[in-house]
Fold each of these.
Amino acid sequence: SQKIEQNSEALNIQEGKTATLTCNYTNYSPAYLQWYRQDPGRGPVFLLLIRENEKEKRKERLKVTFDTTLKQSLFHITASQPADSATYLCALGQGQNFVFGPGTRLSVLP
Amino acid sequence: DTGVSQDPRHKITKRGQNVTFRCDPISEHNRLYWYRQTLGQGPEFLTYFQNEAQLEKSRLLSDRFSAERPKGSFSTLEIQRTEQGDSAMYLCASSYTRTSGGTDTQYFGPGTRLTVL
């Protein structure tokens, strides 16, 4: 059956460290993968998109990798700050169809 | 503000009542999506429109659910005879896509939280 898993339900790290979130999937062949941030009581906000033929994408303190052989994406936040605390969702895309993972709740401790 | 807006933000209703939610997308966006999200889960796709045409509906969308986008601008999602299991956050998103099959970055509204008593 198709499944999307995101590392743990919650991840706590110390301010200034690098946060690494994982997104693993089975029985999907996404053409692209996106990462979203969601704060409590609000809709998701788009962060980054990476296509199947791209290995890595960067945007400021964010970095995403996409390994279609391992069926995995890694999402890194460097020099993390308490303001980065939120739930992060990966979403697999094939054309206009989107499937979201369950999310990882990140807490950056001061 | 030119983002996606949703109304109401919160709705409490009794089981068996009908409810209707509205979504106003970003004005130049041709696609509009509805999702449902429960606590601790990611958004689940319900349906989407390209302009005024409803192109896809999830199996999650039972006969009690109906969505419209009459003029290709705002959209409404109606739930008839609500059940307690319908309690969730209902999210709307919009995007602009030039060609079919293109990648789709979606911009989400703040959601409507529905509580069915």
Amino acid sequence: KAGVTQTPRYLIKTRGQQVTLSCSPISGHRSVSWYQQTPGQGLQFLFEYFSETQRNKGNFPGRFSGRQFSNSRSEMNVSTLELGDSALYLCASSGQLQETQYFGPGTRLLVL
Amino acid sequence: GEDVEQSLFLSVREGDSSVINCTYTDSSSTYLYWYKQEPGAGLQLLTYIFSNMDMKQDQRLTVLLNKKDKHLSLRIADTQTGDSAIYFCAEEEGSGAGSYQLTFGKGTKLSVIP
């Protein structure tokens, strides 16, 4: 069974731009969570989607948003990028009955 | 909010055992997890333990859970150079509606000396 995939793997943007990251979960998994990893703050929860609905949200500004499609693939969007948004963005998927989260390789975003 | 604490660094000699410790705060966590992260990579699930267990063994990995003290440890037997990585302890926090989020420690960087 293929693992969680994320595209693109690397991205360079400038301040003020917006960015969209994509995540394809493990086949059969319907829950997708997003996390931000930075050297200063560590790993922080962004949001979780299940059956195209956002079920849970972390403490991030409204510039961070996401969505999930009917095939469980998810995208997250960051608008009006700031330098501090430079991070590794990790996506994780889990099955309906098992909460264990399996992570993808991440998208490394650099904001200049 | 919930908090997970880990020591930041651990150095061991190849062949020795490594013990990585973690304290957590959410007594309602059903599962506690250990993830491994190698440079430039995502998080690899190593193992997890159900909160009503005291110990779980999986090949070279042993997880000990002291629920009273909210203390979790990961022991790696016969540590190899390939075990050099950052190890994250994580507790799950339920938000209701079947949703769970993970709260991670800052990670312990394990360095294995040949």
